[in-house]
Amino acid sequence: MRISELSPDIRASVGSGGGGGDRQPLLEEIESVVREAERTSSPEDLPSNSLSDKLRKSLSGLKSSASPLPEPLKLQIWKLSYRLWNACVDLSNAAGLRRRGGEEEQEEQARLRQVAADLLLLAGKPAGVPSPAFKAASFFYKTGQIWHDLKRFDLASACFEKATDLTSDAVIDGDDERRLVLDLNLARSRAAWGVSEQDLALNLLNRSKSLIAGSPEAYRAVAEQYLQFGRQNLTKDPKSSEASSKLLSEALNLSEKGLAAAAAAGEETLISSLEVLRGKSLRFLAAARLQAEDFEGTMKCVRVLRNGGGGGTTRAWLGMGKAAEAEAELRGMVVDRGVPEGVCVSAAEAYVQEVGAEAARGALAALLRRCRLGAVAALRVVQRVAGGGGGGVRSRVAAELASDEAVVAIFEAAPKERQAMHALLWNCGAEQFSLREYGTSADVFEKSMLYVPCDAEYRTHRAKCFRVLCLCHVALSQLDRAFEYICEAEKFKVYLLKKDDSGATDQIQSMLSCVDFKPEFLTLSAHEAVSNQNLPVAVASLSTLLSLYSSLDKQPTRTPEAIVIRNIVSLLDRQSISTTTPEILKLMKRARARMSDIGTDGFFGTGVAKREVRWFAGNAWNMGIKTADCGDYESGAEFFELASEFCFGTDDDDEEEEKRAMACKSIILSIAARFEGEKKKKEDLPDSVLKRAAEMLNQAQTVLSSTELPPSFAYLHILNAYQLHGRLDSDPRPKQVQLIKSFASSKASSPHYLLQLGLTASVRSQPNPEAAELALNECLSGHLASPSPDYKTIGLVIRRLIGLAGWSRKEGRDDEVYGIYTRAYKIIVGLKAEEYPADEGKWLATTAWNRAGPQVRMGRVGAAERWMKMGLDIARHVKGMDGYIECMEETLSGLRKIGGGGGGMERWIWVVV
Questions:
Q1: Which residue ranges are recorded for the region named Disordered (predicted)?
Q2: What is the spatial distance between Cα 186 and Cα 222, in angstroms, rounded to a whole number?
């Protein structure tokens, strides 16, 4: 930016001078150096460091004066700054016409530009200068870019942070200023990446997405930065293919969004560049998936590249208002099975939103008939069509799509999604019924019954459907249809009769003494009791039957013992869990023991053993969940242990992977329940229980290498192992650190879980500071790399890390603590007001300041000044500390004045409380 850009009235004011008598000699010195820079014709002619040193000395003199600058003096400084900047621009142009200067000349030019930026910062906001904050910020931004090119990342970061400070409170007016703020975020991100602060770099990059504001050019800039980081990460560390894939996927997503925005704006040039960027993202993403040995993912990227299709192209056609081309693109994606499922569904959603459900019916039907689409994706498409149940047309189209035979078949093996589809259609039908659209309502209700199984378990749901269909047809005067439905509904009604429980139980016991007694009578009595909803009597009848079974292979009826136990457990499970838990646990233990004694086929029956074992394992799991939720952790632990034993106790390998995963999860929950019970009772677990838990964990560990657990279970496994090592090992710390390292590098790792591990390692009776620091640092990195960082948790983690660093008195720990404060400061710079918790910010500022106290008492002026400056810098970015800042500045200034000899330093100790 040159002086000619200033308005005439400002130039006149600048030229008039005035004010600041004691500063005038310093300004004359600065002007003399500026003239010398203006006379220099080539970078090689610049005296090494001399000009910048002279300017820096004069600038320090100007800053030392406490009185405010008068307006004429501000404008004079503004003029000098621009003259110096323009001289640097001329020198750069001269270097470009000949050849680039050496590194020393380039650094001297950067230092001169730094002084020009500092002069603008000192001048503040002169009256009449438009957007002074953004002009000064642009100087710092451009200077920072030069430092970054020279690989001086620390100086570059300092420039970018000053520029961010200037723009953070300023009102953005226009696209140029908005783009400067975005460029600043991206530049800070690049500088942080250059010094290997990848978590901060990703945090700043994620912040940049909020500044895009629908601009295609901004989409391109942010996507390019994600692509650059992804490429560098992939090249630098091939093992981190998952992290690279996330960055490259984000680049792909942003480039596709940018394509849609560019198409809507009709910017053909940007469309072309974004297509190139999208292609690069796909190519590098394919390479990342190849390194991860995800060959299917690699082929998907390659196919999309080869065919040029994808959700971004569909959105681009829609953005240009060309629905026919968008439909053709979508149909092409449907036919091409190489296009990823998520891309298809995303494009379909955009198409429905643009053209409406009725017009999109054909393309959507073709999409849903692709049986490779899972139930989740199909449900998502129908939900988008239904639009939350709004509109008769949308409801009818949703019902037609859902009633397709191919679509219904997808949901047969997905009970959860099937139930969700039924609920979606039911809500659509109910809304149409309330609007008195009885024809549409009846059609939708009828289609919803396709997602209600015919099992007895779901007869209540079917009865509700029949009754509401009857009402619909009555309203439509279709009385024959109404009569048909009401008859069907009657078949599902259950009339309940109350009986005397004790009398019924006595009658069952009297059967045993009858001469013509047969065990089948007890089964019939149980059925009768169940039909009348008298569950205690049914349990009594079946329990009596179970008592007739001996430990021998013989059985009193054709019904296997396992079936009797299963029926009793099912009936008990329908009653109050607080009273039936002990009996259920006893029955499950009996089943496990009998299975071990007489073999799986002998106990369950030939041909059905696999199914029955799965039922017992699943029921033990469910009971473990229920009892643990009720606070009965001891019973929960036993149920989970039984579930694992049922899984490990069979030899059938047809579903080996599923069985192993179930067994591992059961063991993990069993041990976790033991520890939860210990905390509730406030009693240490016996050594025998701990050793049994360790044996179970070792049993699970043998299969974990080939079984991938959900993240929550992987975390619980590590937590269990961590606690067991702490209880059973003489020196558990090395093993605990290794556990956290392995978890942090796994797919299951997340900031939330790492935080819990870090807290566990730092607050237990036997803390492990090394493990705690490792977990908390990984947690902090994860949060900063998140698209939506939780700054409250970040503040907590930083506070913990500072506390942990303070535990050790090793040499160099003070520098490590200072590094944590520096990291916190970089995070806070550029955040919106109150985005970083104010209490955490105040704690950082005051504790940093107070750390100067001991340094002052020991006469260490440099160390004291460093800590006081850190506290002051943080305080300037924390809301509610305005009253402290002036006093802190005065105290720091006083310390600097007397710091040389150290005498009388004690009076400058000022503790913030």
A1: 1-26, 34-53
A2: 7
